[in-house]
Amino acid sequence: MNPYRKDFPIFEGNDKIYFDNAATTQRPARVFAEMTAFNDTCNANPLRGLYAWSVEATDRYEQARHTAAAFIGAAQDCQIIFTRNATESINLVAYTWGMANIGEGDEILISIMEHHSNILPWQMVARQKKARLVYLECLPDGTITDEEIESKLTDRTKLVGIGHVSNVMGVTNPVEKIIALAHQKGAVVLVDGAQSAPHMPIDVRKMDADFFAFSGHKLCGPMGIGVLYGKKELLEDMPPFLTGGEMIEYVTRESATYAELPHKFEAGTVNATGAVGLEAAIRYIQEIGFETIMKTEETLTARLIARLRETPHVTVYGQEDPSKHCGIVTFNIEGCHPHDVASVLDTENIYIRAGHHCAQPLMKWMGVGSTARASLYFYNTEEEVDRFADKISQVRGWLGYGD
Amino acid sequence: MEIKSLYREIVNEHNLYPGHKYDLENPTMVLQGINPSCGDDINLQLRIEDDIITDASFNGSGCAISQASADMMIDLIIGKRKEEALRLAETFMGMIKGTATAGQIESLEEAAALQDISHMPARVKCAVLGWRTMRQMLEEINK
Ligand SMILES: Cc1ncc(COP(=O)(O)O)c(C=O)c1O
Fold this sequence. Notes:
The complex is a heterodimer.
Chain A: E1 17-18, H1 29-41, H2 52-72, E2 80-83, H3 86-101, E3 107-111, H4 120-129, E4 132-136, H5 146-152, E5 157-163, H6 175-184, E6 188-192, H7 204-207, E7 211-215, E8 226-230, H8 232-237, E9 248-251, E10 256-258, H9 272-288, H10 290-309, E11 314-316, E12 328-333, H11 338-346, E13 350-351, E14 353-355, H12 360-366, E15 371-375, H13 382-398
Parallel strand pairs in A: 1-13, 3-4, 3-5, 5-6, 6-7
Antiparallel strand pairs in A: 2-8, 7-8, 9-10, 11-12, 12-15, 14-15
Helix pairs in contact in A: 1-9, 2-9, 3-4, 10-13
Chain B: H1 3-16, E1 29-35, E2 40-49, E3 52-61, H2 64-77, H3 82-97, H4 102-106, H5 121-142
Antiparallel strand pairs in B: 1-2, 2-3
Bound molecules: pyridoxal-5'-phosphate (PLP).
């Protein structure tokens, strides 16, 4: 029996198979217990504190920042900006660093595997600044080759936006190599860590990322809290994103001076409860340890892929090696539209994602309209994988095929 | 109806062995209907003579529900006056929204089987794609 399952109230007393962890993960009871404790003992507006509760709320909020900084290896807490999610983190960089530093004729390089959240903000910058949006293409299994990286990086490349792990292919992109080569060209690199931070240890300094974005809800935290990490020099030079309360030093009728990092980028009352929940989630994950998380996911993914590969009419996308899937298994069943597949599996209490996975350019490149995706996390079990695979072999029958 | 029985009893048949999935030789109107978010895509073709739909067909790709629903719709509208087809479309939309009466729903014949799609919000747009496209075509004539 998986020892972590009991930590998750949502799994109690039912046999639902939740295989949509790349969309959002489940949360252990303790995450909400911590949020409730904040609510019940020190809820007050952080950063304005002239009294004990507010001082305590500020401490808890900043403690969460410290935990998040340590989680990804940031040198200083002030390099961690709390946002709502990875999408907001990426938009923050596009609207501030991007709009201030990218000009006409410049190039923004992103990969064909990006989530819409790491495409649309750059389309916006490219459109407004008359810059060119260039795509890193990948091989059919999702590999981005060295030659491809070298050929697409030019002296005009100002920014590279790269997903650390693809939410469709599950493949881990060679971000360290991309960053090193991009830096040689003087480009800045944003790593979209939405799908990597939940599954592997991150060291932003070793990676040498300029920006790194992730969401709390994909790593057992609550929805509505995310992180943007940035190099300090870059963050300091960037204009603010949103303006208003909490992010100022001094305001006159006509102008204002901005607060120091990280508050410069956190306008308005912050999501302190969310930050406390995120911290609890990070601590929970750290207690389990990435070694265990990765080993569990790898075992489950290998089993799942092996079972799917032996099922007639099923195509599995991405890398041959299950350990290179980060728990993400995208597939199709011949003759069956993924939405129909998901609908019939729902009646078997199996929950998967189907559609374009917010990666329409990638779907087009793969030559499919949409796909089905099962994505695992450390709390899933071999029994679930087996039941899932058994049901997958029945799907064609349910959809009217004779075999 | 449970969704698996819905597929088994109605949808699969119309999806795998559609009666009207081909190109018409001489349509008087053709319109493409798409659901961008799921990639459902149909090309609806009508022949309308003296306000009567004398023939209809479709082509396209997409989930079983979108394709089967279009096929069932065509079963129903061939030979109907355009006002009547519009009324059926109204009834179908009403059925999906849960506002149509039992009597109205009966007029949809086989397409009434899709009633339970109203409990599956994510699939509603698949079921209504054909109907929405037809309504758009017929309203175009009235302009
Ligand atoms: C690779 C990737 N980037 C970005 C996002 C966006 O995350 P969020 O919706 O939490 O902002 C996702 C979520 O699906 C993702 O998989």
